[in-house]
Amino acid sequence: MEKLKNYICGEWVEGNGNGIPLYNAVNGEQVAVSDTEGLNFEQALDFGRTVGYKNLSSMTFYDRGEMLKKVALYLLERKKKYYELSYKTGATHVDSWVDIEGGFGTFFTYSGLAKRTLPNTPFWVDGDTQKISANGTHLGTHILTPNEGVSIQINAYNFPVWGMLEKLSTSLLAGVPSIVKPSPFGSYLTNAVFQDMIESGHLPEGALQLVCGEPGNILEYVQDGDSVLFTGSATTGRKLKSLPSVAGNAVRFNMEADSLNCSILGLDAKPGTPEFDLFIKEVRNEMTTKAGQKCTAIRRIIVPEHLVGDVQNALSKALDQTKIGNPLSRETRMGSLVGKQQYDEVLRKIDILKAETELVYDGKHELVDADYEKGSFMSPKLFLNDKPFEKNISHDVEAFGPVSTLMPYKDAEEAAALAKRGKGSLVGSIISYDNEFVAETSWKMASQHGRVFVLNRDNAKESTGHGSPLPTLMHGGPGRAGGGEEMGGLNGLHFFLQKTAIQGSPDILTAITKIYQQGAEKKYSDKHPFQKYFEEVEVGDSLETAGRTVTDADIVNFSNVSWDHFYAHTDATSLTGTIFDKTVAHGYFILSAAAGLFVSGKKGPVIANYGLENCSFFKPVYAGDTITVYLTAKEKINRGVKGRNIPSGVVKWLVEVVNQREEVVCVATILTLVAKQSPFIDLKVKNIQKILNGLTESSQAKWGKMTPQEMLEHLETTVNHSIGEPEAEKCYTPEENLEKYQDSLYNHRKMPKDFPAPFLPDDGSLPPLKHKNLEAARESFLNTIQKYIIYYRENPEAEHLHFVFGKLNKEMMELMHRKHFTHHFEQFGLI
């Protein structure tokens, strides 16, 4: 039987012991063996701290975000084989989708967050700058840097993929190397996904290691700067947290443990209401999804005392209709537990629950294409605790399977009290259409819950469900649930980052943070900042504008245009007792006037105004005052661009408006979208002519079989087709790929060197030459480009067919030619 290999110190290594046999949860057949015997854990941790930390922490947050996206795309292309393995763990298709593609989705989410909001630096400036001196010559702020250590991530058996990727999404993005330790059960699925992550080539050396099997003494080697993330039972978690190596060193420990999550049916949600039906459906789903093996599953069903019978009957019918069996069958809606060991443990907990509460539903389901003896199947079980304030077993014991307990309450106060008797939960839900009931219950139960999920008819269609943690929201809970916090958007990164206060002068803080600080030196040049591409803009680039004297007419006109007739701008007789001496200019007029002073009217790389933040008005501006603007590049934010958008970044500009007395009247930060410099040549005849002067008969192609003349005639033919001389006969790209191909014209990725021209014969031979020599071909090509330019000036709405990219308009045709020319000019070493 195949042994799962471990990935240690950059190599795949087998354990040298007997290992743990891993079985198919559906039919009992052995799948693999996990073995960690003989592994050098001390060496593994050291490798992560040195090689892994150096490689990951030196990357920028933006680049790490791009890395997550590339890995997720690579895995998504190979998802079919993961599903085939997931079925062996007893998971249905829906269960597997949550685990597999839910894991990929977490990577995609964090990639998007990074590329939208995190800096293109290896550190992250956290919060605003604090002025800690009277004259502003001494400032302070905070930066976040990756913890100088390795993260050991111990995952549970219920989500072999999501459990791993959920933790890695934040640790990798933070720049901290990780050692993944999945539960042995289902680790063959984790192993397959992990192998592909390594084979993708998108992760730097040392970023990840994998231990498939028992953890051995790995935690004995943790030290200051390391971290441990644990998902599993609270008992095991507390033992690990108290280990001398963990407790005695500055080792960060995050625990996400079992919890007795509840769902509360509102007093208003009687049978026949949408909320009653939603409640039954939600509880049924949470009992049967993953066969109840979810840390977020509903274990306590809290319902109004007069509705206990109705809920019991409706839920029993819903559970009766849930087909259990082989996950590969289309009929199956609930699979098996992960193995016989877990089955026996759930039975043990069921017996404990029976001692104090009544088992009111024990479905005797016939299995679909499966066998109770061979597999680890268990029918759903519903208990009734008729006195939940006296019988505490339901609040203390969790059977980690399709098991839940029904219990009554009288009012909102009791509902919240019962919810909190779980002593700390990952999630509690309230299903009600009564806003007052929801409001009162939710805040009263919140202190013992990591998440409160409210469901009713208004959000049901788009709801993600009680049991679904989301990357943008915190996953964790207080007390019994472990007190941990995972994900929660960018907050999830803080666990892996060291926060450091930085103090110094404005120039020093600007140099350290790469964000301009007021009072730092400004850089002036003859070139207007708005005429610079994103790559050319430097933090500190500045512009001092001419002055503009505000007039009464300005104030009146702006009032009429904006319809802002606030008395301070329009009625001089109403100013007694106000802060104004006379009618004052509108604040937004000052900001608009400032923009009029600092923008460049000439077309340039600035694409659009992207936003405005932190705008403050400090002194009134009256008619007769003269304003001047200081515009300074404050911060640059790289930006991922999709589809048919111009590759660009965001530049934040500090706008300081002063009056004739050099008093600051307004400070704001505006955001502009600034184009990145294209790596492709412009379609200017003189420029192309200059490039082609370097092309001779003896010029050799760096790839492909073209001669210099064949290359020029090929480009000339392409240009002629783009103006319909003649119109291309057909597009060879399949319709389903056409949009993707056309979108690619807008990005800055170069054309592939090995792309086969679909319009050429199978042997790749080119058409016969039509010009007598290279010089004639060069002259004809340049004339054709000039003809192309004139054609689209006269026919700006024209569209023509391209062999590869389909029907293209003027903009897309130009983008295609710029890429195509650059491709072939580089082929012959001309650029």
UniProtKB/TrEMBL annotation:
Residues 460-484 are annotated as: Disordered. Signal peptide: none annotated. The keyword Manganese does not apply. Keywords: Hydrolase, Oxidoreductase. Pfam families: Aldedh, MaoC_dehydratas. Gene3D superfamilies: Aldehyde Dehydrogenase, Chain A, domain 1, Aldehyde Dehydrogenase, Chain A, domain 2, Hotdog Thioesterase. Residues 539-639 form the MaoC-like domain. Its EC number is 1.2.1.91, 3.3.2.12. It comes from the Bacteria. Residues 12-499 form the Aldehyde dehydrogenase domain. SUPFAM superfamilies: ALDH-like, Thioesterase/thiol ester dehydrase-isomerase. GO terms for molecular function: hydrolase activity; oxidoreductase activity, acting on the aldehyde or oxo group of donors, NAD or NADP as acceptor. NCBIfam families: PaaN-DH, PRK11903.1. This is Oxepin-CoA hydrolase/3-oxo-5,6-dehydrosuberyl-CoA semialdehyde dehydrogenase. It comes from Chryseobacterium defluvii.
